[in-house]
UniProtKB/TrEMBL annotation, chains A, B:
The lineage of its organism: Eukaryota, Fungi, Dikarya, Ascomycota, Pezizomycotina. This is Homoserine dehydrogenase. Belongs to the homoserine dehydrogenase family. NADPH binds at T95, K119. Its cofactor is a metal cation. SUPFAM superfamilies: Glyceraldehyde-3-phosphate dehydrogenase-like, C-terminal domain, NAD(P)-binding Rossmann-fold domains.
């Protein structure tokens, strides 16, 4: 029999809630001993670290008797609690909190493995990236973060396998944002469509496909963070997501509006003023028999990372993308002119949580 | 420091040779102590199990002094040798030998893990499949066989993650044979082509894309074996690759020709007699604006597995496939109407070996 593995989970938003559902249905699940949302923390009582917290959902967990309830704990306090558990422990960070991500080395050095869809830790300064993996080696802990790119799609694991087995990755290209995929598949589909850019943005916002402030999608930063992670795994020392060109789709005059509800409302109201600019970009592509898409690309040899609009042939895989799907193409020496392609939903609670749960299972297999 | 891991490798054909090249370039490679081809076996001398065999290639290995040289060893003898090594051991089977595959339980029960692209062990009787995984559990050994389907493409790992995290896989569909992909992408591309079926088969044979006897590709058995493996991972108890319909592309009058060089020559000579039949199938599809492709599909709910010709819309991903690429689509509850798709080269020594090497690294991570 292997010894039990102890689990701390932070974040009970969309991904966090889906993850708890998946966790509750795992055979051989680890023992959930810490569950936290922004202002509250549930803990299995020390020193026995039992009973475990039921994984079903926050409500069930928070009404379970014999658990310890506290306010928000600091990363140091959480690390101290987990590292004193009578077995190996894993922290699942289902937040997008940069502060928690900044503390990963603290956890890792104490032997606590990290599983997370939170991009912040892996796409900030390169020194932090190095610190994370050096701390993991030092603490003999593991770090899995498949869902930071393409949600549950096998993107990072595939790239890591290519690199680890000695293939030479020459180029990575794709559509990395479900939101921007939807916007361009709807605004400029193969065969054309008679739609205004602003209408498509508003539709996406109403469907819940955009962040509360659509500018958080249109600024390209989310894509830039994902490219930073991929480029680093491919061996490039990208200093930060600001160290390469990012084409923002926010009209310059609207970039300065505040991110308050009022600012967002003003942005939406004024966006139609710029429909002509986007229509011109679309038509330029169409005149050449192409379509325009918002893509990210990494040229490994020339160390060039780019995020922005590009034209594609109408019969290309990128042009044919549907809905809010992601597509990622890996060009390598072994795969030659036809890339290895991974495609599918790259956003959404259930598929993002799936990547987290699959990572958790892999970490558990390695810790046993 | 972790204890060393000992490695036995059988088979030095196309995949075996590529694998040895990749193995030789791994940092932290396991100790190669057994290397065998059909009639010869190289061994590190017992009881020290050292020196290790250089992994570069068969010629270098076989001319290395201080190794023990023997003829072909039986699976029992190989298992006895590996299980007595002073650490955990792994057998990499780079053959397509059904006899060796039949012995996997012998290795696994003795704690020897298996990594292989050999389909035979996983696509014969269902009782053998069960025996393999029960033996692995009993011997606390691991079995990784990613390259049995789609070569190095992340197909089995993706399906296993979907199943393990509790997604409901409803349908798997795709082009699973590089050879049949090339034949149909060339014979019936989107937009049409004026080619005779027999000419395309001969071209593929001359390019080395077919087995020495092209009927070994055209009979659909290779695809049926892959579907058997996928269906079993998806939870279906497929008894054998013969237990579902397989559409053979060998004209009935030519199926009985011997598999000798003379029989193959006769097959090639007489194949043009049947060009009219294949042209009719192509034209029927074209009249409906479609193209014909040779695909495999698994309907998990109705437990239906099928291998054969099917028509596809010209703008579908399957119709747009290039060269000898594979494409595999997973339809699941979480992914909804847009499947998770993996696409790329599904055959060839280097990419198949890459799947084997990646599996080897994963097994090593778990054994440490």
């Amino acid at each position: 029999m292997s010894s039990p593995i102890y689990l701390g989970v932070i974040g009970v938003g969309g991904v966090g809630t889906s993850f708890l559902h998946q966790l509750a249905r795992l055979p051989n699940a680890p023992k959930l001993i810490l569950l936290a949302r922004s202002s509250q923390t549930l803990l299995s009582p020390t020193p026995s670290y039992s009973p475990a917290i039921p994984a079903a959902d926050w409500k069930t967990a928070s009404t379970t008797p014999s658990l310890t309830t506290k306010g928000a704990l600091s990363p140091d306090e959480i690390a101290a609690y987990l590292s004193s558990a009578p077995g190996r422990s894993i922290l699942v960070d289902n937040t997008s909190d940069p502060k928690l991500a900044a503390s990963y080395p603290v956890f890792l050095r104490q032997g606590i493995s990290i599983v997370t869809p939170n991009k912040k830790g892996f796409s900030s300064d390169f020194s932090h990236w190095k610190d994370i993996f050096e701390s993991a080696a030092q603490g003999k802990a593991l770090v899995y973060h498949e869902s930071t790119v393409g949600a549950g799609l096998p993107v990072l694991s595939t790239l890591k396998d290519l690199v680890a087995t000695g293939d030479e990755v020459t180029r990575i290209e794709g559509v990395f944002s479900g939101t921007l995929s939807f916007l361009f598949n709807t605004f400029a589909p193969v065969g054309g469509a008679d739609k205004q850019w602003s209408d498509v943005v508003i539709q996406a916002k109403e469907l819940g496909y955009t962040e509360p402030d659509p500018r958080d999608d249109l600024n390209g930063m989310d894509v830039a963070r994902k490219l930073t992670i991929l480029a680093r795994i491919a061996g490039l020392e990208v200093q930060s997501p600001d160290s390469f060109p990012i084409e923002s789709l926010i009209p310059a005059p609207l970039a300065g509006l505040p991110s308050s509800a009022d600012g967002i409302a003003q942005f939406i109201t004024r966006l139609p003023e710029f429909d002509g600019e986007m229509a011109a970009i679309k038509e330029t592509a169409e005149k050449q028999g192409k379509v325009v898409r918002y893509v990210g690309s990494i040229d490994v040899k020339s160390k060039e990372v780019r995020v922005g609009l590009q034209q594609f042939d109408q019969d290309s895989a990128i042009a044919g993308l549907k809905g809010s799907d992601n597509i990622i193409s890996f060009y390598t020496r072994r795969y030659g002119s036809n890339p290895l392609i991974v495609q599918g939903a790259g956003a959404g609670g259930d598929v993002t949580a799936m990547g987290v749960t699959a990572d958790l299972l892999k970490v558990m297999e390695r810790l046993h």
